[in-house]
Amino acid sequence: MKISTLSKDQLALLIKLLIGNDNQDLFREADKARREVYGDSVYLRGLIEISNYCKSDCYYCGISCTNKNVNRYRLSKKEILSCCKNGYNLGFRTFVMQGGEDNFYNDEVFCDIIYTIRNTYPDCAITLSVGEKSYSTYKKYFESGANRYLLRHETANAEHFAMLHPKNQTFENRRRCLFDLKEIGFQVGAGFMVGSPFQKIEYLVEDLFFLKELSPQMVGIGPFIPQKDTRFKDFKSGSLELTLIMISLTRLMLPNALIPSTTALGSIAKNGRELGLQAGANIVMPNLSPQEKRKDYALYDNKAFSGSEAAEGLEILKKQILNAGYRTDMSRGDYAK
Ligand code: SAH
């Protein structure tokens, strides 16, 4: 099946036909495509949730600035470095610093942190995920030693984007950020939620077409999960089935992509992350954040954070990966060109 040659209408029809079916053939094809590029490696990334302060108000997100029920925290440089040290000793060679859009980390403060990690761990990849910034800020991050940047596009349909965000956030700027990051030289991660409020199959097709155009090195796909303090609290979670279908189609569209089997996927189904790997994902991002802070980084309800999602659960995770038919790979795991 050559996904990348299908028209928008054909892709929409295909997705509609896949829903409600046993999609083992699709998953097998996606798995084959992934093995041709990355073999049976599942790369691990150490995730550090550096801050839950955020100036943005994404309507779906539990740490939006309007949520008064969040215990806000931010990690100091020292705390972040201690997470890296712990992660390095556990064998991690990629650190992902993710957080809300927290102005405390201005260019000077954040570049100093990046630079220090770069010099302390020259053999590690540094990934950032701190939202929309200017070209010049992204460039400074890159020059300080960061290698990769995760910024999901969330939805490639501008009207849909406007239903999920306030007026001051636009798809146009999101797109600008992603292309800027690419031009600067980052390995870039885009991606979207499955089953977000008001989503249509046609929008998911636009997501796939946008991915084809951007051709990112990484693609994060996870189900939308409601968070009780947000305006979307009464919407349903995205389905396991459709998330797996979208992971497979993305793998077939971009065979070289690094695709995480996300915590959100593991949070809606007990074996969600294993199924994600078998549908074409090849990354898992265990949590390296200080244990007592993890419950406060609650983007959605019932987020898993104490089992194999945690870096301390590494041995359990390795067994799960093995049982799913793969091998844990602790190397940097850069994009295969
Ligand atoms: N502030 C940064 C990183 C944190 S949010 C950024 O915006 O990139 C990381 C991702 O979590 C978002 O891109 C979004 O796709 C996902 N997310 C947020 N709220 C969610 C929810 N309620 N359910 C599922 N995923 C969610």
Strand order of the largest sheet: 2-3-4-5-6-7
In what range is the share of β-strand residues? Answer: 5-15%
Order of helices and strands: HHEEHEHEHEHHEHEHHHEHE
Rg for CA atoms: 18 Å
Structural class computed from helices and strand pairing: alpha/beta
Q: What is the averaged pLDDT score?
A: 96
Q: Which blocks of ≥5 consecutive residues have pLDDT under 50? A: none
- Major pleated sheet: 6 strands, parallel
Q: Figure out the total of helices.
A: 12
Share of helical residues: 40-55%
Could you give the distance between the termini? Answer: 22 Å
Bound molecules: S-adenosyl-L-homocysteine
Coarse morphology: globular
Tell me how many strands there are. Answer: 9
Question: Can you walk through the features of this model?
Answer:
This protein has about 325 residues and is α/β, with parallel strands linked by helices. It has helices at about 10-20, 25-40, 75-90, 105-120, 135-145, 160-165, 170-185, 200-215, 240-255, 265-270, 270-280, 315-325; strands spanning about 40-45, 45-50, 95-100, 125-130, 150, 185-195, 220-225, 285, 325-330. A six-stranded parallel sheet has the order 2-3-4-5-6-7. Strands 8-1-9 form a three-stranded parallel sheet, with helices on one face. Helix 2 crosses helix 9 (about 240-255). The two termini are about 20 Å apart. The mean pLDDT is about 95. Bound molecules: S-adenosyl-L-homocysteine. The site of S-adenosyl-L-homocysteine has 19 residues, from loops.
